[in-house]
Amino acid sequence: IITVDLQHKEIQGFFDIPVENLRASPFIIQHIQETMFAQNINRSDVVIVAEHTSAVRKATGYAERLKVDLAILHGTDDKLADTDEIDGRSSPPPVKEIEMVPGGDILPVLTFSGAFRRPLKLVGDVRGKLAIMIENIIDDVEQPIRAANFLKNDEGARQVHLVGTHSLLTPEAAEKLNESEIDEIVVTNTIPHEIQSMKCPKMKTIDISILLTEAIRRMHNNESLSYLFADVSVED
């Protein structure tokens, strides 16, 4: 089985046949470098942004290979509705009131009026710079749109790009991205998205078919695939 950028590399262990998980990062990095060259942007004016804490490792790999700074977004904004769902990731809610119990003891009473939300904050500096948000799968557009608004309007980013390997966008989601503060959306062609591209002229597609064809050729001829991982970091 040949895959590209599995969301979780551990998935390979669930197969009883060989699995080769290829990486699209060399193609994406080349595109970013070409964008920097075309716009005459210095490395000091580019920042890789981890849109959430789970993307830090991947974003770090890109920042190190591009030799640019890294920034991390965490928390959320006030536009998100409160939810009573407890998923184990939020801090416990504050004590709302106390209650007297027989014997004169004071018993704190917790009232769950929604998950505790930290305000959206940025660790790093994007002011006047090109901020590139790195994702593996682009499907839910609300979070990157809110992040782009924050990076531009609150943190002063000059441009915001959204980069990912797989595009699972609906046509409606593509329209939302096109109307957002995001200046460019870059994805590969692992999944067909012709209609989405028509709905979102900001979207650019990187062709990685040569990666798959070379992998198939090497496997068919019993050749090593190590060459295809030459420019891949352990964070991918």
From TrEMBL:
Source taxon at top rank: Eukaryota
GO biological process: 5-phosphoribose 1-diphosphate biosynthetic process; purine nucleotide biosynthetic process
GO CC annotations, alphabetized: cytoplasm; ribose phosphate diphosphokinase complex
Transmembrane segments: none
CDD domains: PRTases_typeI
A Pfam family reported for this protein in Swiss-Prot or TrEMBL: Pribosyl_synth
Record-level Gene Ontology MF annotations: ATP binding; magnesium ion binding; ribose phosphate diphosphokinase activity
PANTHER family for this protein: GH23275P, RIBOSE-PHOSPHATE DIPHOSPHOKINASE FAMILY MEMBER
Family: Belongs to the ribose-phosphate pyrophosphokinase family.
Designated name of the protein: Phosphoribosylpyrophosphate synthetase-associated protein-like
Source species of the chain: Euroglyphus maynei (Mayne's house dust mite)
